Amino acid sequence: EPIQERFFRPHFLQAPGDLTVQEGKLCRMDCKASVSGLPTPDLSWQLNGRPIRPDSSHKMLVRENGVHSLIIEPVTARDAGIYTCIASNRAGENSFSLELTVAAKEVQKAPVFIEKLQNTGVTEGFPVRLECRISGEPSPQIFWKKENESLTYNTDRVSMHQDNYGYICLLIQGATKEDAGWYTVSAKNEAGIVSCTARLDVYTQWQQPSQQTKPKKVRPSASRYAALCDQGLDIKAAFQPEANPVHLTMQPGLVESDDL
Fold first, then answer.
1. DSSP assigned state of 209
2. What domain count does the chain have?
């Protein structure tokens, strides 16, 4: 009776609830016990009714503010179960329990392209989609760049989209000449990073090929001709005066390249 007048059994001011931790990660259980007098209670931990002993993966710590911690690293499937923390002193004891669920270790796969970006052309003023499909575990973060400029947010005209099946899309409403250029999409997760680049060309109406007959793509035989076209030079004026105009005449059966 005199002991019960001076000492009181412990009670917990702080206790964790049920936990789910991934296999291979760190698990920490924090609690704080309090009593109205001395002695300070002793704490012990049990797993499924069996005492837990400190070892290389199980550590028990006490901080100056009275918080007791059970730290498990790395967590394995054997650590799953019902944990009980018991605080006891001369006046009695108190306890709490929680369930630890150990989730299977996450499979990590670096991102890969199932479908890559394709070079695309669009008539000025029309919408265009740059599309690809990516897989990876965990689901990768997606980053878009135009030339060396990152596209970090959506606007009413240019927006970035993705779904749960790995399809990625950059949508441009009303393409302009300024939208032409090289676009790069990158996918990154904990296992790696992958990138893909494609060209977007924006044409005026007169540049568009006929809808009925799609021209065949053949490599130009005159590299100088192509180079001068890229510079926007007048072909006839650029060639030497003594050049025979016949050389510039398309031979039967030859088809002009899209690049020209």
1. P
2. 2
The answer to whether position 2 is within a domain reads no
Q: What is the pLDDT of residues 166-199, one digit of tens each?
A: 999 999 999 999 999 999 999 999 999 999 999 9
Residues 21 and 68 placed together within one structural domain of the fold: yes
Q: Are residues 83 and 128 in the same domain?
A: no
Residue 164 belongs to some domain of the structure: yes
Burial of residue 124 (number of CB atoms within 10 Å: 0-12, 13-18, 19+): middle
Report the length, in residues, of the chain: 260
Cis peptide before 74 (omega within 30 of 0): yes
Tens digit of each residue's pLDDT (9 = 90 or more) over 99-147: 999 998 878 899 999 999 999 999 999 999 999 999 999 899 999 999 9
**Number of CB atoms found within 10 A of residue 175's CB:** 23
Neighbouring residues of 207: CB distance < 8 A, sequence distance ≥ 6: none
pTM of the model: 0.48
Report in angstroms the alpha-carbon separations of 94 from 46, 61, 85, 89: 13, 19, 8, 9
